[in-house]
Amino acid sequence: MPDFLSITVDTSALRGLDLARPVIKKHLRGAMRYSRALLTRGMKAEMHFANPTGNLEGSIHAEPAAADPYFNAVGTNVTYARFVNYGTGRRGASSGVAHPPDYQYGPKQGMKAQPFAEPAFAQATPAIHKAFATAMQAALSEMAAGGK
């Protein structure tokens, strides 16, 4: 998955359910596909800055984890993505953007943060929650009607 910047959708709250049931898998996987697409589009849409090569925007992608069908990661492996998102130097530090604990600002002037990951996640969160609620309702309805 993206090495430098990613958004992960945590579905650990679903672990108590019998997720092995095909009907539940079917509906939750649909919600996962939807959330991956929504976050990918959202991150690209939040890029309100000069991106002359389009490399950063073109690198945004989603990957489901092979080991966990209920894990989503959306992000980029472009090395400078973190610098754009969190800023660098004194300008970045004064941007007020929350950054990961391992992110260090240098002593030089640097550049201000131009966040695109966190705003996309914040905007998409209500729709993602709704997608999972709808998926579970559909799965339960199908099970009540005799689906497995």
Describe this protein's structure.
The chain has 5 helices and 3 strands; from the N terminus they run βααββααα. The protein has a 3-stranded antiparallel sheet with strand order 1-3-2. The chain has 148 residues and is mainly alpha-helical. α1 packs antiparallel against α5 (117-144). It has helices spanning 22-45, 55-59, 81-86, 89-93, 117-144, and strands at residues 5-9, 61-64, 72-76. The model has no long low-confidence stretch (mean pLDDT 85). It is 46% helix and 9% strand. It has one domain (5-144). The protein starts with a strand and ends with a helix. The relative contact order is 0.21.
**Number of contiguous helices:** 5
SSE run? EHHEEHHH
What portion of residues is helical? 40-55%
Structural class: mainly alpha
Task: List segments where confidence is low: pLDDT < 50 over at least 5 consecutive residues.
Answer: none
- Report Rg: 18 Å
Estimate nothing, just give the exact number of structural domains: 1
Summarize the structure.
With 148 residues, the protein is mainly α. 46% of the residues lie in helices and 9% in strands. The protein contains five helices and three strands.
